[in-house]
Design a protein that fits this description.
2 copies of one chain form a homodimer. Chain A is α/β, with parallel strands linked by helices and 341 residues long. Chain A has helices spanning 11-18, 22-30, 37-49, 56-62, 80-95, 112-120, 140-144, 168-181, 196-212, 232-240, 254-265, 282-285, 294-310; strands spanning 69-74, 99-104, 126-129, 149-152, 162-166, 187-190, 222-223, 248-251, 272-276, 288-292, 318-321, 323-326. Chain A folds into 3 domains: 11-54, 434 Repressor (Amino-terminal Domain), CATH 1.10.260.40; 69-167 and 294-310, Rossmann fold, CATH 3.40.50; 168-291, Rossmann fold, CATH 3.40.50.2300. Helices cover 41% and strands 16% of the residues of chain A. A 6-stranded parallel sheet of chain A has the order 2-1-3-4-5-11, with helices on both faces. A 6-stranded mixed sheet of chain A has the order 7-6-8-9-10-12, with helices on both faces. In chain A, helix 1 crosses helix 2, helix 5 packs across helix 13 (294-310) and helix 8 (168-181) packs parallel to helix 9 (196-212). The radius of gyration of chain A is 27 Å and the shape is elongated. At the A-B interface, helix 4, helix 5, strand 2, helix 6 and helix 7 of A face helix 4, helix 5, strand 2, helix 6 and helix 7 of B. Strand 2 of chain A pairs antiparallel with strand 2 of chain B, so a sheet runs across the interface. The structure holds a DNA duplex (16 and 16 nucleotides).
DNA sequence: CTGTTAGCGCATTCAT
DNA sequence: ATGAATGCGCTAACAG
């Protein structure tokens, strides 16, 4: 790296070398107004020789302090789900020439405002956020400054903002209905600790579908994992070992599905299983799931951000990304005859 | 969203309201020099009332056109491997107050220069790149302008740059040695089309270990998947159906491992299998793999970027991230007696 | 400890 | 079609 670092050329340097004024060079790069083809040539030539690259900072400053970036703040950066979302956002933004600034809160609620603030200082044009703090009211000020705020995967608390969520409730309800249609009535719900909002929505969908099938109290078969130290496996175990074990199980998320599979593998009873969230080897393993497209979640958020940047007005939007039931066998096991009391 | 958007306050607005000069306000926000506690109070108070947020654009411009951002350009944004890398980069950068600008080339080699250029226009302080174009010489100019360039996962072509790669060769060699130690000599190498560099390194490690075990020509057992339309399954099938089938198989990457598993499941012959790249359910499925930490790959790249930003000089660095063999059963199947001719 | 002057690199007036 | 002044918001360099 023995590089003789040369200073960065400016408009003026290019102008001098090309024998024109700075403004003319500026015109070439803004693209808008017309420049004589031959002077343009001379300028581009000079720019190339000087490795000129217009200073976005200065340009943006002059144009009213606006950048072409959107911030995305997520929780645990290792969670593949969030990265799929990030992928979607980036995909959508790049179509419009925007770039994405990415940061994570490391899943620490108290760091959310800090991280968000750091990004807002970069003068982003919009903020996409997976809310993790208890409360997003600290963003109220920024919102009044005209920065569009979009939350993903769950709504913000104490803040008006556009939101993109999965069809958690209806997706889970569909899964449970497919089980009740096969005669199941005793259906376990297992979820390891997960974010409150999505869990409660999925649980609501589960209860609703059971209600429709005539099961009014499903609490005996619910294992909600409020205690993080209890593994999904052990929850499934407790279900199956109970006096009145379920004939089918639905899980509230990816991790719970894996845990359930692990436990069911050690059992001989045929228990139907439908998971929430698809995963890579689910097809090979024949696991039925409520699938969805996390990338689409991101794309929707990206579009929402761009729309708001274009036009700040209009009512708050709530976008729901569809889920769909993928039948791969594990969920298509009929209830044993006589299993319904 | 019926927000009465208020104009953004500037230093001067705050100064006026607090009854001081702009510079004093500036001092409060730069933090460096001392300001009388009571004036500081007044200023912070005024700032809060005006929802003041220092304009990073202007600040950076004034301070020499430098931002606190690093660009990361990756190929296919849906590839979880790259996102793990991104996670590592972000993790490391955020420690030093830098943020990451993220963009993807959508795996289209011809778009790499375009995407890179867009990010460089944002005046990033360093560029981390997963090279995908045939040639990175187009970055020579930027390098001379002092922008550190770090490539990840594979070296750049025709460009001097710091590089972080996996220990592809030694990792694969270790896996193959563990098989030869169990008596295997006929070991298949299967890889679906993957990036040239990593594949050739892993192949080299495979060949080297076989050489050590006295197998000088392994080509009959190599299935390199240069044709994207040929699935790993079919390659494994062709191996097992050959006149002299292998007693063990190593795969060149994640996808090939899954494919191999799929095919081996349909077979009765006990064939040892070791995959390259770990995956979520490998443990549950008992698949031995050459594991590595993609996040660490990113962290190393992030550190390298920060080092170079601090100090541009010094020799080009090549960092190799270790891999390790995880024995879960599938690779610990001894060769059948008499399988060595 | 605080204020004044100047200018970062560029684009928006208004000229010519 | 091109050029000259002016200022975006902020901070370095100097005052005082």
């Amino acid at each position: 790296m023995e590089i003789p670092i040369q200073p960065r050329a400016t408009l003026h340097d290019v102008a001098r070398l090309a024998g024109v004024s700075a403004k003319t060079v500026s015109r070439v790069y803004s693209g808008s107004s017309r420049v004589l083809p031959e002077t343009r040539e001379r300028i581009l030539d000079a720019a190339k020789r000087l490795r000129f690259r217009p200073n976005t900072l200065a340009r943006n400053l002059r144009q009213g302090g606006k950048t072409a970036t959107v911030a995305f703040v997520m929780g645990d950066i290792r969670n593949p789900f969030y990265f799929q979302v990030a992928a979607g956002i980036e995909q959508e933004l790049s179509k419009s020439g925007f770039t994405m600034l990415l940061a994570s809160t490391g899943d620490a609620p108290e760091s959310e405002p800090v991280v968000v603030d750091a990004l807002l200082n970069q003068l982003v044009r919009a903020l996409v956020l997976i809310p993790i703090a208890a409360d997003q009211s600290y963003l109220e000020g920024e919102r009044h400054l005209g920065t569009p705020i979009i939350t993903v995967d769950r709504p913000a608390n104490d803040l008006i903002a556009d939101t993109v969520v999965l069809a958690n409730r209806s997706g889970m309800a569909e899964a449970v209905r497919s089980l009740t249609a096969l005669g199941h009535r005793k259906i376990g719900f297992v979820s390891n600790p997960s974010e409150m909002y999505t869990l409660s929505e999925r649980l609501a969908g589960y209860r609703q579908a059971l209600m429709e099938a005539g099961v009014s109290d499903s609490t005996p078969w619910e294992r909600l994992g409020n205690d993080p130290s209890i593994s999904p496996e052990s929850q499934v175990r407790s279900l199956l070992d109970s006096i009145d074990p379920p004939t089918a199980i639905v899980t509230g998320n990816n991790r719970a599905t894996t845990g359930a599979m692990r436990e069911l593998r050690t059992r001989s009873e045929p228990v139907a299983l439908i998971g929430f969230d698809d995963f890579e080897l689910a097809e090979m393993l024949g696991i039925s799931v409520v699938a969805h497209d996390p990338v689409e979640l991101g794309r929707a958020a990206g579009r929402l951000a761009l729309e708001r940047i274009e036009n700040h007005d209009g009512p708050t939007k709530l976008v729901e990304i569809p889920t769909w039931l993928v039948k791969r066998g594990s969920g298509e096991i009929a209830a044993p005859v006589g299993s319904v009391d």
